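Bug: token stream looks shifted between consecutive jobs. Job 1:
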Amino acid sequence: MANHKATKKDSRQAAARNLRNRYQGKTTRNAMRALLSSTDKAEVAENMPKVVALLDKLAKRNVIHKNKAANLKSAIMKKAATV
């Protein structure tokens, strides 16, 4: 357990960041899942920019690596193109 005041604060901040990152990651995964399960071409075209933006935000905030974001975007675009 942290003994110094600054270490305790760092521990609280890390817990808050972890919670925020988990929420954003889960939200993005759910959006991707909804996009990939959709069979309506118009719906896919409407939601694709939103999902791409979510992935870019995660990469910008270092929740996921930028290459992983690029790989995920590529994969969902390939699958969405087959709809």
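Job 2, same session, no restart:
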Amino acid sequence: MNDIGPAVPIRLHYDAFGRFVVTLANGESHSGVVPVRAFPFSAPDQWISLCDESGHEVLCLTDLAELDPKTRDQLAAELARREFIPRILHILRVDEGGVSSQWFVKTDRGDTRFELPSEDNIRRMGSDGVLLIDNHGIRFRITSVPQLDAQSRRIVRQYL
């Protein structure tokens, strides 16, 4: 594992096969790297690992602010591409169906419907947030329950 300090240059790009490549300051290149946030919700811009195709850490970035703007933007775009977590803005309704439930919600990516297999798939995230994981493993996030409308707050609180 290599930690980088402030303003230490690395280069990021995609190779001819569409794999994400990091070139370290010493000239060593690694293809097929995957950026992974250690703390995606509590510290999304800190402690980001770049892992090779075998899952071994190639580089650990302590803070995205240490990168030059172009590299930071490239890494942020790759992280966004890999992390699909729609944010729930409004809960339209929830239909109970035995153990599972159907949720009809408005997200930052549009209206959708998903099934929660059980109440175990609803988790608190910090003091105000909630994470819901549907039957396909897709995660939906509520960043702040108090900021939801009254109907949505009432629905969420009955499951917490």
